[in-house]
UniProtKB/TrEMBL annotation:
<feature type="transmembrane region" description="Helical">
    <location>
        <begin position="37"/>
        <end position="55"/>
    </location>
</feature>
<feature type="transmembrane region" description="Helical">
    <location>
        <begin position="98"/>
        <end position="118"/>
    </location>
</feature>
<protein>
    <submittedName>
        <fullName>CPBP family intramembrane metalloprotease</fullName>
    </submittedName>
</protein>
<feature type="transmembrane region" description="Helical">
    <location>
        <begin position="76"/>
        <end position="92"/>
    </location>
</feature>
<feature type="transmembrane region" description="Helical">
    <location>
        <begin position="12"/>
        <end position="31"/>
    </location>
</feature>
<dbReference type="Pfam" id="PF02517">
    <property type="entry name" value="Rce1-like"/>
</dbReference>
<keyword id="KW-0378">Hydrolase</keyword>
<dbReference type="GO" id="GO:0008237">
    <property type="term" value="F:metallopeptidase activity"/>
</dbReference>
<dbReference type="GO" id="GO:0004175">
    <property type="term" value="F:endopeptidase activity"/>
</dbReference>
<keyword id="KW-0482">Metalloprotease</keyword>
<keyword id="KW-0645">Protease</keyword>
<dbReference type="GO" id="GO:0006508">
    <property type="term" value="P:proteolysis"/>
</dbReference>
<dbReference type="InterPro" id="IPR003675">
    <property type="entry name" value="Rce1/LyrA-like_dom"/>
</dbReference>
<keyword id="KW-0812">Transmembrane</keyword>
<keyword id="KW-0472">Membrane</keyword>
<feature type="domain" description="CAAX prenyl protease 2/Lysostaphin resistance protein A-like">
    <location>
        <begin position="104"/>
        <end position="157"/>
    </location>
</feature>
<keyword id="KW-1133">Transmembrane helix</keyword>
Length: 166
């Protein structure tokens, strides 16, 4: 059984992320931003908070350690699932749609520097590392479940199952 203090930490992180995304979603519903990247501006304070925490506690190297002597082939091997995923999205969306190159760059920056940073730090950074003290299997399964659960909440706002999965 997961210890009570650990359970509170994991639950608190999950509730924080859900709360932040719900508030951001409500804001988007009320303001109807004109461009896609503006939909995620409400997440920026959370990303700044995480970056501040990592800086204050000097934990950047703990979460962002890269093997310096990795060969190009090995890097491509590790990146291949991401590249496959991006290819599937590109094919599924029938290309990249943006009103301008600037909008496209802003969307990509928002998605990678804000959304991906927050999700990866919370689920695969904080929660996974907290749960690793319990066991490897529990850590991977529970952090993956919480990641999936959080994303499944998108369906409450009318997002299709296919869009939620992909």
């Amino acid at each position: 059984m997961i210890k009570s203090k650990l359970l509170w930490k994991v639950s608190g992180l999950e509730i924080l992320v859900i709360f932040w995304f719900v508030v951001n979603g409500a804001s988007v519903s009320m303001t109807h931003p004109t461009t896609h990247y503006l939909q995620f501006l409400g997440i920026v304070p959370l990303a700044i908070g995480i970056a501040f925490y990592l800086t204050k506690t000097k934990k950047w190297p703990h979460f962002f350690s890269f093997q310096q002597n990795m060969s190009f082939k090995t890097r491509i091997l590790f990146l291949s699932p991401l590249l496959l995923y991006l290819l599937i999205i590109l094919i599924g969306n029938k290309g990249v749609h943006g009103s301008s190159i600037v909008d496209l760059v802003l969307i990509l920056l928002t998605q990678t520097l804000v959304i991906a940073f927050v999700e990866e730090m919370v689920f695969r950074g904080f929660i996974l590392n907290l749960l690793l003290a319990k066991s490897y299997k529990v850590a991977v399964l529970l952090s993956s479940f919480l990641f999936a659960f959080t994303h499944s909440l998108n369906m409450l706002s009318g997002q299709s199952v296919a869009n939620t999965i992909f």
